[in-house]
Amino acid sequence: MIQRSKQDKMEGGRVAVYPGSFDPLTYGHIDIVERSLEIFDRVILAIASNSPKRSLFTVEERIDMAKKIFENTPDVIVDSFKGLLVDYVGRTNARVIIRGLRATSDFEYEYHMASMNRSLNNQLDTLFMMTSKDYFFVSSRSIKEVASLGGTVEGLVPSLIARRLKEKFKLPVPKENQIGWDD
Ligand code: ADP
């Protein structure tokens, strides 16, 4: 084990892939990334570009927002992938997939996906992180719903995302908020 960790360091450290739709990125996701960086040297935030979910933001928009949000965190690499996650992860030097867990309702889906991925490639493992208490109710979907109805998503997404949501839903951006966004 000690041998392996030394070798990993030489090869650029321990890398994990955090895949998802990130439509859009929320503080729930960002919290998982930050906590993953306590365990891994680098995290690849991998935006699934052929997710069956109907997305609000294009993959290019999601990549752009994620790159801006993590621009001062060089250990986060923003990327996108098509096709099977295990094939993508196999092309990186990561051996761990990170997923976040909120409620028990996440568990069943995640358990099936992790088992399927393991059966497709038994060299890969999925690591689950429990959501933080501040974000257990935060999902991209609920953020989109609230934002589409003109509700505030402040404190749940970075201000850059809040602004992009407003632009998407063509709601007026309050004058006092037209400058000073986190982008
Ligand atoms: P996907 O379409 O792959 O589920 P999401 O962007 O919705 O993509 O979520 C990516 C990952 O982040 C999933 O593992 C999801 O459970 C996790 N996640 C989403 N929101 C939160 C949150 N608030 N706290 C912890 N994990 C979260």
Which features would summarize this protein structure in a list?
single chain; 183 residues; alpha/beta; 7 helices; disordered C terminus
3D structure, described in words:
This protein has a 5-stranded parallel sheet, with helices on both faces. The protein has 7 helices and 5 strands. The protein has helices at 2-10, 27-36, 59-69, 85-91, 104-120, 140-148, 159-168; strands at residues 15-20, 42-48, 76-81, 96-101, 125-130. With 183 residues, it is α/β, with parallel strands linked by helices. It binds adenosine-5'-diphosphate. Adenosine-5'-diphosphate (ADP) binds next to helix 2 and strand 4.
Give the helix/strand layout:
Blueprint: H1 2-10, E1 15-20, H2 27-36, E2 42-48, H3 59-69, E3 76-81, H4 85-91, E4 96-101, H5 104-120, E5 125-130, H6 140-148, H7 159-168
Parallel strand pairs: 1-2, 1-4, 2-3, 4-5
Oligomer: single chain
The number of helical elements comes to 7
| Name of the top-level CATH class of the domain at 8-133 | Alpha Beta
Q: Specify the overall morphology.
A: globular
The ordered string of helix (H) and strand (E) elements is HEHEHEHEHEHH
Strand order of the largest sheet: 3-2-1-4-5
Q: Spell out which ligands are present.
A: adenosine-5'-diphosphate
CATH architecture annotation name of the domain at 8-133: 3-Layer(aba) Sandwich
Give the biggest beta sheet: 5 strands, parallel
Point out poorly predicted stretches.
6-10, 177-183
Strand content is 15-25%
Determine the CATH topology of the domain at 8-133.
Answer: Rossmann fold
Query: What's the name of the CATH homologous superfamily of the domain at 8-133?
Result: HUPs
